[in-house]
Amino acid sequence: MNTSAQKNPFEAYLTGILCRCERLSCYVRSRGWGFIMTWAHRVAGITLVLYMFFHILTLSGLYDPASFASKMKFFHNFLFSFLEWALALPVIFHGLNGARLILYEIFRVREDALMIRWVFLLGALYVLTLGIFMLMGNQQVSAGFFWLMVAITSAISSVVVCKKIWHTKNATPWKLQRVSGALLLPMVSGHMFFMHLNYQVGHDVETILARMSGMGIKFVDFVFVVTVFFHAGFGLCTIIGDYVEDSRLRVGLSVFASFVMAVFAYAGVKLVFSI
What structural domains and CATH numbers belong to the chain? Predict the structure, then answer.
């Protein structure tokens, strides 16, 4: 791992704190920060999978708008607002570190220390900005214009990655995983910003139903749901393949994980086109 980027005082201080954790420092010395980043990436990914399950189950309440409105009132408190903001931490870390890995694997960008620094700096900026929007809570932005910009950005990033890797000898699922990651980085980040630029869009039942009724939004949501659960399913199967040695158990867990992802993807797509 390239560590040529010189640490600033804050990074040196943060590294000192992390290295005082005996188990963590042992891994850092023996396997390097790349190993820690990989584990953090996977933990963040699993956290987001669990959130997506919860998100689909919560939105399924839209079949009964009165019940959904009652649930939203329950969620209007400091604890859930804090958890909603804290979700930005695994979202942006997983997204930006995934972009770092794509740059490393596909575009041969080897300045790991510098890239890790940018992951944390951009992540901190994103989380801070999102927190400010949540505290202000009175912004308005055109849904059509916002999602058009997000869709264009997502399409460009995914096409660039696709053109770069599709002719390689890697397996098709691996290629689709990288392309889906390039698509999701702008889309997921944009989704969280949009929800908090327009607070009622994600919390008021009438506003949610009005937003989801547009065919353009339905298409964006459809692509979002399918891509998220494919990306999550492949990621879980990769983790299972890396850490489960018994071949039968590995296949069984992979099939089960794929089945669960497919069920939630179906529930999400049905929700998108039924509301």
Answer: 9-274 (1.20.1300)
